[in-house]
Amino acid sequence: MKQVVVAFRRIVNTPAFSAVVVLTLALGIGAVTAAFTLVESVLLRPLPYDSPDSLVRVLAFNRKEGQVEWLSWAEAIALHAESSSLQGVAVSTVFPATLRTDEGSERLERAFVSYNYFPLLGVEPVLGSLFLEGEERQVLVSRRLWLQRWSGSVDVLGRTLELDGELYTITGVLPETVYTHDLGSAPADLWLPSPIDRETANPHFRIFTVIARLSPGATLERVREELQALQRRLAVEAPDVYEGWDAHVDTLHASLVGKADQGLYLLLGAVCLILLIATVNLANLMTSRFLGRRREIATRLALGDSSTGILRDAAVEGGILAVGGCALGTLLAVGSLRLLPHLLPFTLPREAEVAADARMIATGLASAAIATVLFALLPALGVVKSDSATALRHAGRALSGDGGRARGFVVAAQVALSIPLLVGAGLLTQSLFLLSERHLGMQPDGLVNVRVSVPASLYPEANDRAQFFRRLLDTIRTLPGVKSAGATLQVPLVAHQADRTRFRFVEGPELAAADRPRALLQVVTEGYFETLGTRLVEGRLFDSRDDAGADAVMIISAELARRERAGRSPVGLHIETELTISPDEPNVRRVIGVVEDIPHFGPRFEAEPQIFVPHKQSPWPSMGIMMRTREPVESIVDRARKAVLELEKSALVGEVTTLREALDTTLGEPRFHSRLLLVFAAVATSLACLGIYGLLSFAVTARTRELGLRAALGASPASLVTLVVKSGLTVTLAGTAVGLALAIAGTRLVQTLLFGVSALDSKTFAAAALFLLAFALLTALLPARRAATLDPVDALRGRE
Q: Do residues 557 and 596 lie in contact, with contact meaning Cβ atoms separated by under 8 Å?
């Protein structure tokens, strides 16, 4: 108890020093605690389901393209009926829906799941009941939507919702921790039942995700073999559909987390480095503090006090400071986690499960204990190990060797820890620049998308749907502020799903189904490419000639022409597709044009081959209306909504997005990682340079007599500056060499986050090293200038 009182009195008597230590530890421990909580909640914690380790997700794998996709209905049904490795199989698929309310329309994510989906997971509703078997006009809503739209009222049960013109009854509210486990793990606000024994009209549609529970003793590999056997059997019956496919099976946890682990581990590694650098800096301060108390320590040792007692006092003092930093840091971590949904420009997997708990407090205390050892005990140990007689003889005088080697090691460690952050920030910034500058085959600024749907019951005929959208676009083009307009089924950068079809050139060689390439299949209207600003490479665009009574035509992307025609013109040739948007459409169309590539899913993805068919020949009842304008989005959307409802009062006006916002969303995650590492790198570099400044300032003070003697013997100011700077750069170079090695070892953390740049890019490594060396040089010049201006007489007399 006495040691605690003495340590607390010493802390109170040095408020500035104590405040710096506590605040530094609070920032470091808070960052580490928050980052570890994210990693633990998202990556390490089991899913909130019954026996989550036995749950798996089953998808298909395209051997030719090396791409994971959904299952066909036949594959899902066969697994459900025949698999011996799975004791429960549930099916899901996700499609957006338009919810009509008294306030207007809203676009929401909707999941169709089999009746056994929630029982398989072991999920219970927070309100109401799960699906009633055999009743299809029922819907479960997410807790988020329940709180947002109905303020958590129990009266929500029994309410009727209008989704895409159809009425459904709310039977229950699901907890926030229920996920779709779709590709990309899309969240869902609405859950609708889908019988697992229903046949599907088109076997080419791959839109189903299977989740299942392993039978006792079954393995992922066994499930994979079973699906592959089913695919081989189906390929005998329908080779054009099932040849060339393999199985892809992963755990349900892996399906949900996806690639978020790289970013989260990168964050945790970065904040741990920052805490280490900050702790090393505090160790430097504590070394100076202990050296100031050297006479006291030497006297205690001479009077018979043990080294253990002195180390115990240091541990108590450091522990009090660390506990204070831990308490403040934990509060900062709790606050940052609450702000997380507003801080992140992207949705984090399992975000609803991230919360402060006992594990967070344990992480903070563990960080505080480690920090105490590093910044309090180790410096005290270094001082105590000095000979007591030597300490008494030199107490009160700063010698050049006192702590010099330890300080140099500390500063080199700071530099070494800074280099990986600088390299990582440089790589991610370069990658972000390449992403931002990538040409997207369109001009996103000024593009507004409004989703418009008409009820299929009111527009059952294809020609009626085509005529509605033709009249709508003609009206919208005349609205004030609208320069041009067109429509598409799946909006680039906005739609996270797309239909793909195998195809072949009719005039080319006959290909087996497994050898046929695939392309994204799009439906667009005339004026679409002109509105996007997409350049025509060859041929012509869609116009009034391409109606339902004309020859079936298509436009293809430049990537498709490059891959399949190798420089020869595809215009005038015919392409046969396996998939058509509607069952009664022709599957052979003539190519009338080639347009430049549009990376449909954003700049982080390669541009896939694309096929575009005219809406008049494939009239879909829901389209994204694209408008180019320079006026405010709100005014344009209001005019467009009014135009839609004047044409058809039952039409649904759903999501409204701008292509610039959509592009910013796709770049949100790489931009966040880049900026985060830049901030961390700036902090680390500043701390390292502060350490260099402290090291050299201490050296100049300690070597005042030596420097004065050199000046008296004729040494020039320039030579004194060189002497001081050289000692600083020696430490910096040693730390840089170690740091570059650490950066090379840690490149795997950023490899998957990069675009267009290698994780071992030599220019980035060199730039990081040169930047830190230049910064260190400028920092070293400050104490070197003081050494150059020393008065020899004052220095030799012991005065600076």
A: yes
